[in-house]
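Justification of computing resources. Each target in the renewal requires a structure prediction run like the one illustrated here; the chain below, 173 residues long, is used simply to show the kind of job we budget for.
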Amino acid sequence: MSDSSPARPAPVLDVWCELQCPDCRTALDDLRALRARYGDRLELRLRHFPLEKHKHSFAAAQAAEEAVAQGQGWPYAEAVLGRVAELDRKGETLLVEVARELGLDAEEFDTALIDGRHILIVDADQAEGKAIGVTGTPTYVIGGERLDGGKSQEGLRERVEEIADRLLAAQRD
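Resulting C-alpha cells:
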C-alpha cells in the first residue's frame, strides 16, 4: 500500500543577501555545503537586501530576479558574488556580461534593468527584511530564527544545520 499523504514542504532557509557584499561572497561556501547536505530537503530562497553603501547592489538584485525568471537564480547570484570587486568597477555592464557567460538571454537582462520589471520584488524583499530586523547581509532566517552573518559567520552553518535537522525530524514524527 502506498503512502498517499501529500509530501510536506521542505523547511525554508531565507538568505538575505546583497550581491555586492564581500561577506555574502564568503557565505557562498556555507550555502554550497548546505545545498550539498540537504538537496531538495531544504529550500534555499535568495532574498534581496541591497545596501545603500553599494551603488550597484539594487541593479544586481534586479538582475538576479531576471536570472530567476530565466531559471538560473542561484548560479547567477553565485557568479556575480564571485566577482564583487569587478562589480564595484563595472556596474551594470558586468551584470549583463555574467548573464551572457551563463548562456542566459543577456538582451533581456539589459531590458529588465531599463524597464524596472523586478523593482517591486526587490522593494518587497527589502521592506520585509527591515520589518523582521535584518540590518546587514548575509542574514539567515530559518524556523523563525534570525541569524546575522554580517558581523561574523562563525558557527552559523552549524546553527542552520541544527535548526534544519530539528525541522526535518519534526516532519517525520
